[in-house]
């Protein structure tokens, strides 16, 4: 059955001069060379399982290297952001900056001999029930594999919200944070930042530091916490407390401490959700803002808080409270989304609406027919590391058995392709 079907595939390929000859991959194919993909490849290699990473860009960690602003640092201490099997260098600061984190990732790839295939954007991946293998197609190649690991992550594509009059604002006047590098080009200009997450807050601070005049659109409630409290990182302290106390008690402690250290943020238009920060993160994946100095700028009036936008016009914005103000530029700090539904076909693992696994953490890493997901936990690099270890352990269990079977061996497959 398999031989007949493989010969049919070969006939189909040879009949079209442009159709690529399928290449059989002995181990898993990993889609995405970000931190999640690198972690999966390293954990697999440690267990003796080879893999192939397909990456659409020309570098590893393309989001970090190509689509982040210059002042970016890790929001959490480095011990919570290191990938499996390799810690950060001891001399790195507690919160490594963008350059240092990329340096760490490049050293990580070098240490484990990870060589992604760059410039290969996956256009379609689908499980072939007749062959009992995954078929992964890019613009110039087709790969056949027993296991497929989705590592494109939660931040694959920019989210650009629908706003009335967005195109009227002015050519070149609206940019997503993926295209923002530094506030130096906005010196002396009035800038409207849309989105009050960690990125929106930091962009506003960067604009202030470059003598721009930012306003921040806050449409929803938001938890703002100090990055550190009691001499420890807020995140690290929270994780330690959760070992001994229920989440609602830890949330109450965080809110009381934040009120003592930061004051009542609602006085400045920053209202807190009714649900505590850790509980909200667990339910929806919404991350609290860890303040690095932006709140002081809001208190001083250097950063102005504005409500939701009703509509945009040329170089101006009308807000839902009826106020109209002029701006030279708009920066969309509106985040990213998964693009998995665009290329992964007929999968029961991922939701078509948001491109995330249907099963919640910690059971979101394994799907059907050898399909896996790494980096979709809504728990950052720490969650991706947990996924990578689980996936490698699971694949190792069937790797030697599967590769010994004639119908799955690369030599058998390639011979009949």
Automatic annotation (TrEMBL):
Known pathway: Plant hormone metabolism; auxin biosynthesis
GO-annotated molecular function: flavin adenine dinucleotide binding; indole-3-pyruvate monooxygenase activity
Catalytic activity, EC: 1.14.13.168
The reaction(s) this protein catalyses: indole-3-pyruvate + NADPH + O2 + H(+) = (indol-3-yl)acetate + CO2 + NADP(+) + H2O
Protein's UniProt keywords contain Ubl conjugation: no
Keywords: Auxin biosynthesis, FAD, Flavoprotein, Monooxygenase, NADP, Oxidoreductase
Protein name: indole-3-pyruvate monooxygenase
Organism: Salvia splendens (Scarlet sage)
């Amino acid at each position: 059955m398999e031989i007949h079907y493989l010969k049919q595939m070969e006939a189909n390929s040879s009949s079209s001069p442009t159709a690529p000859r399928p290449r059989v991959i002995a181990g898993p194919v990993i889609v995405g060379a970000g931190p999640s993909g690198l972690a999966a490849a390293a954990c697999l290699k440690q267990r003796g399982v080879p893999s192939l990473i397909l990456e659409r860009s020309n570098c590893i960690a393309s989001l970090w290297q190509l689509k982040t602003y210059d002042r970016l640092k890790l929001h959490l201490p480095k011990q919570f952001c290191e990938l499996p099997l390799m810690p950060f260098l001891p001399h790195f600061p507690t919160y490594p900056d963008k350059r240092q984190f990329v340096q760490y990732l490049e050293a990580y790839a070098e240490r484990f001999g990870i060589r992604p295939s760059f410039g290969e954007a996956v256009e379609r991946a689908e499980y072939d029930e007749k062959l009992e293998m995954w078929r992964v197609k890019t613009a110039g190649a087709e790969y056949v594999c027993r296991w497929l690991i989705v590592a494109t992550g939660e931040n694959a594509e920019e989210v650009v919200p629908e706003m009335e009059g967005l195109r009227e604002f002015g050519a070149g006047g609206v940019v997503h944070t993926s295209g923002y590098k530094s506030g130096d080009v906005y010196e002396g200009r009035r800038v409207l930042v849309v989105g009050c997450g960690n990125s929106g807050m930091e962009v506003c601070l960067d604009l202030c530091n470059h003598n721009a005049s930012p306003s921040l659109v806050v449409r929803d409630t938001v938890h703002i916490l100090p990055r550190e409290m009691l001499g420890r990182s807020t995140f690290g302290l929270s994780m330690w407390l959760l070992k001994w106390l229920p989440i609602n008690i830890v949330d109450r402690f965080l809110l009381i401490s934040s009120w003592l250290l930061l004051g009542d943020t609602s006085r400045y238009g920053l209202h807190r959700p009714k649900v505590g920060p850790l509980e909200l993160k667990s339910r929806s994946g919404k991350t609290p803002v860890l303040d690095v100095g932006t709140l002081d700028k809001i208190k001083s009036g250097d950063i102005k808080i504005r409500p939701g936008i009703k509509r945009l016009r040329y170089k101006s914005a009308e807000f839902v409270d009826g106020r109209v103000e002029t701006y030279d530029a708009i920066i969309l700090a509106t985040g990213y989304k998964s693009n998995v539904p665009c290329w992964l076909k007929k999968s029961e693992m991922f939701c078509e609406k948001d491109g995330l696994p249907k099963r919640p953490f910690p059971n979101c890493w394994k799907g059907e027919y050898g399909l896996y997901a790494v980096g979709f936990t809504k728990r950052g690099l720490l969650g991706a590391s947990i996924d990578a270890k689980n996936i490698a352990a699971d694949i190792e269990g069937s790797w030697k058995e599967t590769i010994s079977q004639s119908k799955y061996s690369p030599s058998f497959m390639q011979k009949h392709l």
